[in-house]
Here is the input.
Amino acid sequence: MSATLTRRRLLSVLIGAGSLILAAAPLPGLRRPLVVAVGSELAAAMAEIEPLFERRQGGVDLVWRVQGSQDMVNRAQEENPERPRVLIPASNELLELLAAAVTGRGEPSPFLQTPEPIARTLLVAVAWPERARKLFADDRFSWTLLRRATQAGQWGDLGAPAGWGSVDLRSTDPMRSNSGQLTLALWCRGQDPRACAAGLRRAVYRPARSTDILLQEFISGGPNEGDLAMVYEASALARRQEASRQRPGGYVLLFPDPTVETVLAAAVLRGQAAGRPDDGERFVAFLRSSEGQAVLARQGFRGADGRGGSPAAQGVRRLPPPTPQEREELLRFWQQAG
Here is the structure.
């Protein structure tokens, strides 16, 4: 074999090897972006999922953006190259509303396929222990007792130390966040919707734009920034150690009975969006895989099949989310109360 032929074969081998290396580990600038919009309750899970998924899909640069769930589905109707390819709001109900709004205009479904459930969680309350004991003597959450306490206004009127100040209930803004909408629906269950929506608006101290932001503020501010907050079980479990480090004893979890179980689902959008549709489908498949489900479980979520979560929730009744008509009516009364 001639030296020239040997060099040519060696060069071919090197080129082939280089191509394989680039395919397996492409340069960051050569990776194609995949933009995913998630509710704030998924932020910690996404930080863990991002490197895992990118290792499995070497050519993809996963970019995730935290948005309020209601904001997310509203923006998704504005088709443009910058909108996320995958949507994961806090509830699949919001995806159903988005699909109904789009198809109601005579357009095809906004999704490539039916949204896939990836996890579940419950609406719960977190409270500082001394506040919880004063509000609920038997450690059982009660909407009736909570309404009475917020109507009283001051802890001193409830037989608590006057130094505790006002009774401060924390929740997210129902106009922007799913957990706020669920809180509003449960607060008003069996009540006159107009009066109770106005009552909750008066009771809520500084509505937050997202659940995770609310919980961060609740932990960092302590009792001075809220006595009890309505959040997701997953967020409460994921941040429990953080609360214990910052506040001796941390917070306690209280499970309303009934509460609402919300299903998180992932949807891949049609049309113009940031990322290839097939990359979006692979990402959804990863979330539903055993590896993706394990990450979500570590972050406090129940599995797509409903397993997991806190054992303390056993036996708690779980209501479906409010219907679109109920949601619309309650949000209208909430706005009017403002």
